Amino acid sequence: MRFLFSCVLIGVFVLPLGAQVPTGAGLGVDPLRSNVGAYYYMARPGDLTVLVSVWGDVRNPGQYEIPAGTDLVQLLSYAGGPLETADLGKVRLIRRRDGDQAPGSVLVVNVLALVSDPTRTPRLEPGDVIVIERRAGVRFTQEVLPILRDVAFFLSYMLVSLRAVGVL
Questions:
Q1: Co-location of 159 and 93 in the same domain
Q2: Residue 11 has pLDDT above 70, yes or no
Q3: Residue 12 lies in a domain
Q4: Does 63 share its domain with 146?
Q5: CA–CA dist 115, 112 (Å, integer)
Q6: At 71, which CATH number?
Q7: Pair 130, 93: CB distance under 8 Å
Q8: Residue 98: pLDDT band by 50, 70, 90 thresholds?
Q9: Which of 38, 81, 75, 36 is nearest to 57 (CA)?
Q10: Cα dihedral sign for 58, 59, 65, 66?
Q11: Domain that holds residue 126
Q12: For residues 100 and 4, what is the distance between their CA atoms, to the nearest angstrom?
């Protein structure tokens, strides 16, 4: 009986606490926009903001409403930082033309070089899309090698089975 009562208490009082969404500035998912993907509001109340998107190998990809004047490195920090598989030498910044959905320009940025010269860090504008791709070798080790491992396991299993039956 005590066990049942404890389960009810946990279900009523403890579990709903994990479902609360933080409000205000910070990494909070806006429940009104959550059906369109991840949305993050990173500004303080009253700040002038711009809306940009982050795609690819970052911890929290999605759409970010950030203070005007935010640069690329700050946005990557807001997005939780790049994953260890990210190719930081070829980060693409896609800038849209005013009032047009077609990309206006694509700027390839070496984020690692920005550490030595932060004055070259591009400032973000409304509608910018930042794409961080995986390094080429990482894709092979994470996607192809597991398949080869499974095929090798299957073939060795088949060889052992055929030997046990006496075919080989």
A1: no
A2: no
A3: no
A4: no
A5: 6
A6: 3.10.560.10
A7: yes
A8: low
A9: 81
A10: negative
A11: 24-134
A12: 60
